[in-house]
Amino acid sequence: MTMQSLHTASVTGVTPSIYTDGTYLQSTGSWHQQDSPWKAAHVKSMLERNGLEPETICEIGCGAGEILNWLSRGLPGNAKLTGYEISPQAYALCQARARDGLTFRLGDLLDEDNDPYDVVMAIDVFEHVEDYLGFLRRLKTKGRFKIFHIPLDLSLQSLLRVSPILKLRREVGHLHYFTKETALKTLEHAGYEVVDHAFTATAVELPNRGWKANLMKLPRRLLHAVSPDWAARLFGGYSLMVLAK
């Protein structure tokens, strides 16, 4: 979840970035590697549902590189995958996964003058970026298709309790908070055409989310069967996978 705009403060010497000074890795313990197979499966499903067989895939803010690692083994054909990461700590984790067809670069994709990729992914990224609209507009030219995974932090539960939002800001650096509707409108405002989108039930499908999340699994499942939109709005614990051009 990193790119140059995330560490401007570090460059200017005002406040060190949690993404480049080791704080984020210490806070998460693993850079969320344990969630990567699940995220990769949802990316693969989105590509298949829309008949896309990209030859080149890039991920900006690739973290430990585990999503690309799983995708490289699960996609048909000989797609070439590239991950960009500005965190030295995350880049060190990436390097253990590099092989033919899967490469990683310590740097910012937005500063590169590459030919556009077939697909560019930003998985749980722009909620961390101070100038997220500027980031999205610059990213648009980097790929023919874009896949976003966006946490839907705003729900009735999170607004009533408040503490979950503050915890996300404090521990993992979320600066912006979305519902499904505001996430989609944000992409449209930045000039994207939304092709497809789908909920991912983070708090239901992923294990070990804490006792409170486990307690809410049953009501989330029950309401999801009736209306996924209302489950996300009332209880939270969802993200949005979006395919855009």
List the helices and strands and how they pair.
Blueprint: H1 8-12, H2 23-28, H3 36-49, E1 56-60, H4 66-74, E2 80-85, H5 88-95, E3 102-106, E4 117-123, H6 132-139, E5 143-152, H7 156-161, H8 163-172, H9 180-189, E6 194-200, H10 202-205, H11 211-215, H12 217-226, H13 228-235, E7 238-244
Parallel strand pairs: 1-2, 1-4, 2-3, 4-5
Antiparallel strand pairs: 5-7, 6-7
Your description of this structure?
The chain is of the alpha/beta class. It is built from 13 helices and seven strands. The chain has a seven-stranded mixed beta sheet, with helices on both faces. Helix 6 links the parallel strand 4 and strand 5. Helix 12 runs antiparallel to helix 13. The N terminus is likely disordered.
List keywords for this structure.
245 residues; alpha/beta; 7-stranded mixed β-sheet; 7 strands; 42% helix; globular; disordered N terminus
In brief, what are we looking at here?
This protein is of the alpha/beta class and 245 residues long.
Distance between the termini: 21 Å
Count of helical stretches? 13
Shape summary:
globular
What percentage of the residues does DSSP assign to strands (E)?
15-25%
- Please mark out the parts with pLDDT under 50 across 5 or more consecutive residues, or reply none: 1-16
> Whole-number average pLDDT?
87
Lateral arrangement of strands in the main beta sheet: 3-2-1-4-5-7-6
Order of helices and strands: HHHEHEHEEHEHHHEHHHHE
**Biggest sheet architecture:** 7 strands, mixed
The secondary structure category is: alpha/beta
Rounded to an integer in angstroms, the radius of gyration calculated over CA atoms is 17 Å
The number of E-state strands comes to 7
> Share of helix among residues?
40-55%
